[in-house]
Design a protein that fits this description.
The structure holds two protein chains of two kinds. By secondary structure, chain A is α+β, with helices and mostly antiparallel strands. Helix content of chain A is about 15%, strand content about 30%. Chain A has a five-stranded antiparallel sheet, with no helix packed on it. A three-stranded mixed sheet of chain A has the order 1-6-9. A three-stranded mixed sheet of chain A has the order 4-14-11, with no helix packed on it. The chains are: A alpha+beta, B mainly beta.
């Protein structure tokens, strides 16, 4: 019996020691950053699932793009400046937790505007605003859980107060809901931010197949 | 689901009332019965033509030959006195999970002579069966689409819950004991959800179809026969072989709500679907050993 109680005591002490470094707090801080760059790539959505492609040709009913908003300067310098705020003696870190600090954009996405450079069909001529013809799908870890698309206003709303845990990139797919009745297509995609800045880029000229 | 609870409450009240009335009228001689049986189950239903909407009964599992399901059943009976009997049966399919439970009571009302008696029996049964590849409906109908983006084999277990009551007649002599039951009751599948996600071939269009079934009760009739042959007996116990067979018939359907969202969740159409009722039957046969003490 003595052997059992001694064994239990040793195990108890060992677990208490293990528990101490386990009890630490991570603060709720996030690292601020700013969206200052927009990037557009083509999506091949002719198959079952959307994939990024380098091809400049698309099916008339499968015109889609992936858009990414991010900080062009990178994020390491932000993390560095965040952690260097401690002055004097800093806390010992040997037993501290490995806390992750999410990124949070200073501004959010207010609206999107998409302009077609070529005529889409008889109704939508060149240089017309075709924003209402697009729906979106989130491509980062902020997925809504639904497999369907979301309207563009909903896409913008979900960026408010958003924490970015993996990377400070707001990426989403934009999918055209009407078939293109032209042999070529290209769009200007403008993202208006909450600080009234507008990030804008133009897609490559897309060759529409089977036309 | 409130219908299920109401029916359960009614059945339990019937069982309790009958037990109170008849349980105390004879000298209690408690008897315990345990049986281990192996058997097969055949499910048959009329197959309906595909219409604008699927009929889930068309996709109940059916084996190409032989019984659709093989099973092992463990049956426990407790007879507090010769006139009252409680019965619990756990049934395992090929996965050996005890996911079927039957509860029953048998109350003897009268004896015609020393060999023949009759009474009322009540039962509650919840049994599983497989619903599989219902997405074939979409694969046939929805050409021009990837009819189901879920490439896994679509099989799910659905449970049929049955409440029944009816008369029985029992024959007993020195080495043989048999019973014939005629039951009527209500059965219905416990509601379930299924989701189909579709995408247009060479297109961006996506469509999500969500099926939410409703509890759709149906009247059924069930006959059941049981024969026990005594092989060994002593002062304290008795053992033997048991053979059982039962047949259930019903006209039933699985009603459901179909929610179809196209492009976005905001663009949704909701339809309440009531497929026509189909003939449905469940036949079981089983045999094994029993021991009473």
């Amino acid at each position: 019996m003595k052997t059992l109680s001694k064994t239990l005591l040793i195990l108890f002490v060992a677990n208490i020691l293990r528990l101490i470094p386990g009890c630490c707090e991570c603060d709720e801080s996030s690292i601020p950053f700013s969206f200052n760059k927009i990037d557009i790539t083509n999506i091949d959505n002719s198959g079952d699932w959307a994939v990024i492609t380098q091809s400049d040709s698309m099916k008339p009913e499968a015109v889609a793009f992936e858009v990414a908003l991010f900080d062009s300067a990178g994020y390491y310098h932000l993390a560095q400046s965040f952690f260097s705020t401690n002055t004097g003696y800093s806390n010992a870190t040997a037993m501290s937790c490995d806390c992750s600090y999410p990124l949070r954009a200073i501004q959010h996405l207010s609206s999107l505007k998409i302009t077609s450079l070529y005529a889409l069909n008889a109704q939508y001529s060149a240089q017309s605003d075709v924003t209402e013809l697009f729906v979106a799908k989130l491509t980062n870890n902020s997925s809504t859980g639904s497999n369907l698309y979301i309207p563009l206003p909903a896409l913008c709303n979900q960026t408010q107060g958003k924490n970015y845990y993996d990377s400070g990139v707001e990426s989403f797919g934009l999918y055209l809901t009407v078939p293109v009745e032209n042999s070529r297509a290209a769009f200007i995609i403008s993202a208006k931010l909450s600080d009234n800045r507008i990030l804008s880029d133009t897609t490559k000229v897309i060759t529409i197949l089977n036309r | 689901m409130s219908g299920i609870y109401r029916q359960l409450t009614t059945l339990l009240l019937i069982i309790w009332t009958n037990s109170v009335i008849f349980a105390g009228t004879v000298v209690p001689v408690e008897k315990f019965w345990f049986g281990l049986q192996f058997g097969g189950r055949i499910i048959q239903r009329d197959s309906m033509h595909n219409t604008a909407h699927p009929d889930f009964l068309n996709y109940l599992y059916q084996a190409e030959k032989g019984p659709d399901y093989g099973f092992i059943s463990l049956q426990f009976r407790l007879a507090p006195n010769p006139r009252l009997e409680f019965d619990v049966t756990a049934v395992m399919l090929s996965n050996l999970a005890p996911n079927q439970l039957d509860f029953g009571t048998r109350i003897q009302l009268d004896s015609i002579n020393s060999f023949i008696s009759w009474g009322i029996n009540n039962s509650l049964s919840v049994y599983p069966q497989y619903l599989e590849e219902f997405n074939r409906f979409h694969q046939i109908r929805d050409t021009g689409y990837t009819a189901d983006l879920n490439s896994n084999f679509r099989q799910r277990t659905i449970f049929d819950i049955c409440l029944a009551t009816g008369p029985y007649i029992s024959f007993r002599n020195k080495n043989l004991h048999s019973a014939l039951k005629l039951n009527a009751g209500i059965c219905g599948f416990i509601p379930f959800n299924e989701l189909i996600l579709q995408k247009k071939t060479d297109g961006n269009l996506m469509r999500e179809i969500n099926y939410t079934t409703k509890y759709s009760p149906a009247l059924f009739f069930n006959t059941e026969a049981e024969i026990c042959f005594k092989i060994f007996s002593s002062d304290r116990m008795e053992a033997g072989m048991v053979i059982k067979a039962s047949h259930l018939i019903a006209k039933r359907s699985v009603n459901f709500t179909q929610t179809t969202a196209t492009w976005t969740a905001e663009n949704t159409i909701i339809e309440n679907i009531k497929p026509p009722k189909q003939s449905y039957s469940k036949t079981e046969f089983q045999g094994g050993i029993y021991i009473t003490f």
